[in-house]
Amino acid sequence: MLTVHAAPLVLPVGAAAVPGGAVAVDGDRIAAVGEYDAVVAAHPAARVRRWPGVLTPGLRQWDGAELLTRRYHPDPREADELGELPLTDEDFEKLTGGRPDERRRSGSVRRGLQRMLRHGTTHVAGVLGFPDVLTAARRAGLTALPAADVPVGEPSLDPFVRGGDLAGSVNGPLAVGGRADLAVFDVPDEAALRAAGAAACVATVLGGRLVYRGR
Question: Which residues, other chains included, contact 100 with Cβ-Cβ below 8 Å and sequence gap of 6+?
């Protein structure tokens, strides 16, 4: 189905920002990027999704291996015991008296991937050497990347921690014919996005599919 994603500000990266912009998605590809009225006029039969804030390309998570294989993402039912934030293996062992068993580890990987989606992530690096994690990432729809030239920074679910600005945190620009990997953040502009970080994400689109919606 042809879908138009509209937002008060579209930040394509590599091109001028588009106030009152929109991105038309046909299947898993971007069909148009531009002002809302022009995009809708060119695609009158499209379903329209209106989002708050800014619409950007999907983000790239450099710390895939670290976050998915050397962190434990607690189940919400474990929050009273373990809290809600990812735990290092060492912290997990201290709290539980043992390392994650295979069942808990698999659940942790799935939850870690879901949390990445809630941070606008569409591409994840560093999981290629872990076949089970790579399979889980691909099932979730994320694109796996090699971990080369990783920017300095601490491992975080927020890609902006390493990427710094938007250009350094996306995998590529929004371009006609490119894969429809999008993220939406409930902030007014790029400066506010850098300040708030990826936790401001309210929607993630992977290959044209809405895989996370925060509201």
Answer: 72, 89, 92, 108
Residue 8: Cβ-neighbour burial (10 angstroms; 0-12, 13-18, 19+): middle
Rounded to 5 degrees, φ, ψ at 118 are -70, -5
SS3 for 169?
helix
Provide the CATH number for the domain around residue 202.
Answer: 2.30.40.10
The whole domain housing 37 covers: 2-58+172-213
Do 68 and 48 sit in the same domain of this protein?
no
> Mean pLDDT per 10-residue run, the chain (215 residues)?
96 97 97 98 97 97 86 75 70 60 76 93 88 88 82 84 93 96 98 96 97 90
Asked if residue 7 lies in contact with residue 184, where contact means CB atoms within 8 angstroms, the answer is yes
C-alpha 12, offset from chain centre? 15
Confidence at residue 83, expressed as pLDDT on a 0 to 100 scale: 66
Query: Pick from 145, 173, 167, 138: which is nearest to 63 by CA?
Result: 145
